[in-house]
Specification:
This protein is an alpha/beta fold and 257 residues long. The chain is 44% helix and 15% strand.
């Protein structure tokens, strides 16, 4: 991403802290508003209906949250390219992972997305009920995760996974971590293609090691674009090497949002 001219005055620094508080509070309020309904509805709905409603609410809630960030927090998002995937059937969507925000941005555009999430996030009281209602998949134990992902894909979902397994430390100087084979194994077992997404942020805000109380450098810009689509893998090890090389090549040079 190209360098951006940024105000350096004290009032702007105060605004950055204000924007941080507004953004975090908006996300918490949206999740809290959905929490009691998700807890009440999930046990009484059929699984297919629960998953459909849960994914719709995640998408709509995150769209509302992104609207707040755009309106009040000097954030600019170029993410409409993701919309092209909506009607293209089941696939594994593999993205690089520079920030906590990238999963929010991606799922805000896809009405039938299923995320592979860390167990501690699934157990979080703020996010867990909504994630379970949407049919999201815990990342452990590994065999159970692969089977659940294959089931979701066979039911027509689009599976969002971050092959780095964690946020990228040192972004943007370090554009991507070494990848695990998880995405390749799931795609091979389900017989679906792998669509890459290239996520670019102007700042490492909410990246690995970024404290929640640390204000962002504003304005914050993010672009998510489509990368290469791969056929269903035959050799997960060789495929993972090729996937990592593709992500590194796409993220190697300076780009403009």
């Amino acid at each position: 991403m190209s360098a951006r001219i940024r105000p350096s005055s004290l009032p702007w620094s105060v605004y950055e802290h204000f924007a941080m508080v507004v953004g975090l509070c908006a996300l918490a309020l949206i999740c809290l508003a959905w929490l009691p309904l998700a807890c009440a509805l999930r046990p009484v709905l059929k699984r297919s209906n629960s998953h459909w409603l849960g994914r719709q609410m995640v998408m709509r809630g995150f769209q509302l949250y992104i609207g707040v960030l755009r309106l009040l927090c000097a954030c600019r998002f170029d993410i409409e390219a993701i919309d092209a995937l909506r009607d293209q059937g089941p696939m594994v969507i593999a993205a690089n992972h520079p920030s906590l925000l990238d999963a929010v941005l991606i799922t805000s555009r896809l009405p039938n997305a299923v995320c592979v999430m860390k167990a501690d996030v699934m157990n979080n009281p703020l996010f867990g009920a909504g994630a379970r209602m949407a049919g999201y998949v815990r990342n452990d134990p590994p065999l159970h995760m692969v089977l659940r992902c294959r089931e979701a894909l066979r039911q027509g979902a689009q599976l969002l996974i971050f092959p780095e397994s964690t946020r990228t430390p040192g972004y943007p100087a370090n554009p991507v971590n070494p990848l695990s084979r998880t995405a390749a194994i799931i795609a091979a077992r389900a017989g679906v293609p792998v669509q890459t997404l290239i996520v670019e942020f102007s700042s490492p805000y909410l990246g690995k090691g970024w404290a929640l109380h640390k204000a962002p450098r504003l304005p914050l810009h993010c672009r998510i674009r489509l990368g290469r689509r791969f056929d269903p893998p035959r050799d997960p090890r060789a495929f993972t090497i090729e996937l990592e090389a593709h992500l590194r090549a796409e993220l190697a040079g300076p780009t403009t949002p």
